[in-house]
């Protein structure tokens, strides 16, 4: 991950969990979601103010639906915001996102714990 891009993101989006060295993650997928947002920002898909507003809206909706907002679900909101923005910006469609989410779930179900999850064509059937 580009350290300078991560530093710009953490200064632009105040809610990012961080320590003195930069953003912190509880699981590898959180770092991957963070890196995807950095890449999409760098490619001009959204601005950091636009991202921060969309993330804040996502968190507010989750809180209204009962999310206890303990911080443990922060990157779930981050991922939901990514999905929303890439669909809203026409980078992909909600159907494509749903197709890949279902394929990922299928692949995860057949993968033994501790092994890397790999998508195959059969996961999309």
Describe what this molecule looks like in 3D.
A two-stranded antiparallel ribbon has the order 1-2. β1 and β2 form a beta hairpin. The mean pLDDT is 90. The chain has one domain (3-92). 59% of the residues lie in helices and 3% in strands. 12% of the residues are buried. It has 125 residues and is mainly alpha-helical.
Task: Summarize the biggest pleated sheet.
Answer: 2 strands, antiparallel
Would you tell me the overall average pLDDT?
Answer: 90
Q: What is the first-to-last residue Cα distance?
A: 33 Å
Q: Provide the domain count.
A: 1
Class of secondary structure makeup: mainly alpha
Biggest sheet: strands side by side, in what order?
A: 1-2
Coarse shape: globular
Element-level helix/strand string: HEEHHHH
Oligomer state of the chains in this structure? single chain
Helix content: 55-70%
Number of discrete helical segments: 5
**Radius of gyration of CA atoms, rounded to a whole number:** 15 Å
Summarize the structure.
The protein is mainly α and 125 residues long. The protein is built from five helices and two strands; from the N terminus they run αββαααα. The mean pLDDT is 90.
């Amino acid at each position: 991950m580009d350290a300078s891009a991560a530093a710009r993101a953490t200064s632009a989006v105040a809610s990012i969990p961080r320590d003195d060295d930069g953003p912190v993650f509880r699981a590898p997928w959180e770092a991957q979601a963070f890196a995807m947002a950095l890449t999409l920002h760098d490619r001009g898909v959204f601005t950091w103010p636009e991202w921060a507003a969309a993330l804040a809206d996502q968190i507010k909706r989750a809180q209204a639906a009962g999310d206890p907002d303990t911080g443990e679900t922060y990157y779930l909101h981050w991922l939901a915001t990514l999905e929303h923005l890439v669909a809203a910006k026409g980078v992909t469609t909600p159907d494509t996102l749903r197709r890949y989410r279902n394929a990922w779930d299928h692949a995860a179900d057949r993968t033994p714990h501790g092994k890397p999850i790999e998508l195959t064509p059969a996961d999309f059937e």
